[in-house]
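In the previous chapter we treated chains in isolation. Here, by contrast, the input contains two separate entities that must be folded as one system, with a combined length of 664 residues.
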Amino acid sequence: MGKLIVWAMVVGLSVIGPSTAGSQDGLRLTGSGATFPFPLYSSWFKSFSAKQKTVSVDYQGKGSGAGIQDLVNRTVDFAASDAAMTDEDMSKVPGGVQLLPMTGGEIVLAYNLPGNPKNLRLPRDVYAGIFLGKVTKWSDARLKAANPGVNLPDQDITVVRRADSSGTTFVFTSHLSAISEEWKKGPGAGTTVAWPKSDKFVASPKNDGVTATIKQTPGAIGYIEYSFAKFAKVEMAALQNKAGQYVAAGGEGGSAALGSVVLPPNLRAWVSDPEAATAYPIATYTWMMFYKENKDPKKAAALRAMVEYCLTDGQKASAAMGYVPLPENVVAAVRKASASIR
Amino acid sequence: MIHLGAVARPASVSKPPTQWDYLADRSFRAAAEGAVWLIVLLLSYLLWSIGAKAWLGMREHGLGFLTSTTWDVGRQQFGILPHIWGTLYSSLLALAIGGFFGVVMAIFLTQDFLPPRMAQVFRLIVELLAAIPSVVYGLWGLFVVIPAMRPVADVLAAHLGFIPFFGTTLSGPGLAPASLVLAIMILPTVAAVSQDALRLVPYKVKEAAYGMGTTRWEAILKVMVPAASTGIFGALVLGFGRALGETMALAMLIGNSNQISLSLFSPANTLAALLALNFPEAGPREVQVLMYAALVLLAITLVVNVAGEAIMSRSARRAGRR
């Protein structure tokens, strides 16, 4: 029964299909992993395959965990993950793994309030309190103080969270752990965590499930990827960052957040609480993972060309699709690191 | 008595079975027997393969897995009591609603309340409900049932909040909308099997009841329904089994919150939803406990079905003795 469900989910999730039909003797690159950047990646690979003509790229969005498994089992040419890859997992791949951050994303707090007030300001302690189940009313004094002139109803706050285990939850809970000691000691950070037990906490599957539940529930708040909130047209809060400024998602704040951390040599870094005054507080990189030693040098060259395409033309497309383009210095670092795909 | 006369040619009517007849008969018998054994084999293989994957999880977490209420992957603490509770609670509620309407519908459609053609149309419509995909039910619940239920739930919670069943307001997804949608999903199963059971009672039984001077309702409730009770009970067991295993609609509607509450409006969780939502991203250690949870779900369904069978055969024996 369990296996059946897994299969149903895999089939349901993945949109499989060759990007170009006319490359019979060309190279076929296959990848799998994260669902969050799937819309962006599939558009990248489609235009890359069209441009290259001899190379086609197939990407399956099965989830970050599944992508890592596939890479370890050598069933793909590359994988993608929102949670990068642990040293333990990387050590299972002989020859080594090259992690490359390819794009960034922001996680927003979307809400549903009567009158649809825009860019509600949420102080740090308040939104941590909401997800801890401590702040339970929209008419909370601290919320009112931060939003003068906004008519906040005397309504219960319904928190909507992800029901499935997800990279989105990991990034969001890492941020909460960074800003709230109580969160760190309580639920902590993870792809699924033990949420406070309350009848005002509900969970829905996937980003779209959470988005739909927020839209259907007056007084709801939940965390979703910016691109989903943007296309579903739900209201998003302006969050108070470490410097005390209120920043809305979707502007320069994401790039400022990503640029505020210095990437280590393995290019794996978390932006759990950016310091820059203009930074949006909850942003993350998402990675592609490559074998450092590929059996076929032609394949390695094609993979390098693919990375180069994503770093140049690809970055121009990301902002319009709701992702955060990589800062210039990161592009340079990734380009340099991609040379180790052999 | 009708005499066949010239048509009857005894020699061609009865002749000893040929070698070929024997062979066909034997091979059909063997194939049928093989198919039966294959089912037994399939079930044991299913149990064995899930059990083998769950074994490590079972050894590590033991029976505490069934009574603990925390599901925290980060701290490697796993417990499925809230899921067991939610599975049984939502299924029982769905059975109460869906079972009542399903049986009533079966009585209405089989006991000459409608002209036969009309009854046929209604029957078809009820059976069409079974063809709607689970996801569609889930979306319908999310966009129609929950908004419609919210004002009613709020009034109940405000005025009858002292009754534990109405203890909380409905924040969105929760037990009540999930159970209601689940009831609609099991309705066609219950209605179809109950109709079959009622139709199997010979019509002359009813005529005999009328002959004894019963009213129409006495004939239905005291003669027809008791005569079909074994089949109707089977329908309920089938419906309950279906409710226990339903996944997608519930994952969308129940709220997936690991808590045990009597309140109909609070979010809950079920085993099937837990499995569906956690498998895709599960690490190897989590897969073991999820397999354990799958085994528990399988055990619950088996126990329900076996208990149903036992009750049915007991009531059949008692009916035979009467």
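Chain B has a mean pLDDT of 88. Chain B touches chain A through 50 residues (CB under 8 Å). Compare these points with the single-chain example from earlier in the chapter.
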